[in-house]
Amino acid sequence: MQCIEVIAPAKINLILSVLDRRPDGYHNIWSLMQMLELHDSIVVSCDMLPEAHDVAGSHQKPLPITLECSDARLPCNKENLVYRAAIAVMEKAAVYPKLHIRIIKQIPIAAGLGGGSSDAAATIQALNRLLRLGWGNAECAQIGAGIGSDVPFFFHGPTSIVRGKGSELFPVTVKSPRWVVLVKPPFDISTSWAYEQLDEWRALQGERRRFTDDETVQTLLQSPRSNEEIYPYCWNAFEQVMEERFPVLAMIRQEHHDFGANLAMLAGSGSTVFGVYPSEDIAIAAKRKFLDHENYQVWATKMKVAQPPLGHKTVG
Questions:
Q1: I want to staple 122 with a disulfide (CB 3.0 to 4.6 A). Which of 6, 220, 237, 293 is the partner?
Q2: What is the pLDDT of residue 208?
């Protein structure tokens, strides 16, 4: 049996514009996504059964996949994006090994940090290596696009413009990665619910969709930029409506600024609020202050620098 461990990093959206609804029910977006060093780990054990290449018969049988997860709230069945990613790889490769996949969670669930999507991407990468499929990032990302709209990004990080449903990606370079403090209050926000709330809020407010794909931002990101040069353009379409639904999110955002953050925003569709800090010392001090709130979960991490988006190591 072969075994591999793959790191699955969290992400934040430095820019998140939600645009029109597509015929398939998804929304087009324009986003600047940034990977973080905070990560889950995906450990995949693979046993090539004698019938693993029996293409004609294998797909008729229950796929030999077992999941376990360090967080009991995650389903260990076909509802999990990791399970769906494994199925997608095996069906495309026409190979059906016996798999055991262990998900070691550090990224909070339903927090706007892309944990499920990153775990799915890591699963695709792990199986690509274990099964020696030889797929490049573009092919892996294409498989990921069928799993979830954020999955392709994790093959093109650590920093990328993401457009459309999530499959149009343009890597960019951000200099001098900063420290980030993540604060999650004691509730989750599901992505589907957040989009429903945003659509309802826009209908009531008559708010026009803000579109960030303008010449200024495009030109700015064509060459390496510092975080400070990007800050004036950072915004999140979900922030106002989610803060109206959950005022504590606005309180956390203000506390980030009070504690020395240069930028504070809602992460994705929530419920995490992140602050970008100018140094590790200031970030760690802010983390300690947030931990005075007994019901907050808090992490101090750093933006990932340019490197292969999904690290891995063979563990057996």
A1: 6
A2: 57
The catalytically annotated residue of 11, 184, 287, 304 is 11
Question: 40, 119, 150, 184: which is the annotated catalytic residue?
Answer: 150
Cα 292 to the center of its chain, rounded Å? 27
Domain boundaries, the chain: 2-172, 175-302
Clarify whether 47 is annotated catalytic. Answer: no
The CATH number assigned to the domain with range 175-302 reads: 3.30.70.890
pTM: 0.89
Domain 2-172 has CATH 3.40.50.720: no
pLDDT in tens, 152-203: 999 998 999 998 888 889 888 888 889 999 999 999 999 889 999 998 888 8
Find out whether the peptide bond into 23 is cis, omega within 30 degrees of 0: no
78 is catalytic: no
